[in-house]
Inverse folding.
């Protein structure tokens, strides 16, 4: 195996790990967190208090994820 293939497979494995770690079983939670971070950044840049955005996003996203998971059964 060439060194380039070893490096390439290592990078692919590294990216697969982070995808599985961040996205996991529910991609919508990861998307909600990214959206919440963007809203927080925009509010902060405009001088508005933004501390409340992420707790709200996390509560809503986890609640919605649990609701969907409980209705699948």
């Amino acid at each position: 195996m060439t060194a380039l293939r070893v490096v390439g497979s290592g990078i692919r494995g590294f990216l697969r790990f982070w995808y599985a770690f961040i996205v996991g079983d529910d991609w919508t939670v990861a998307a909600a967190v990214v959206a919440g971070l963007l809203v927080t950044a925009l509010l902060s840049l405009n001088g508005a208090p933004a501390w409340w955005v992420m707790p709200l996003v996390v509560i809503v996203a986890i609640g919605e994820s649990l609701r969907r998971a409980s209705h699948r059964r």
Summary: The helical segments are 3-22, 27-45, 53-71. The CA atoms of residues 8 and 26 lie 27 Å apart. The two ends are 46 Å apart (CA to CA).
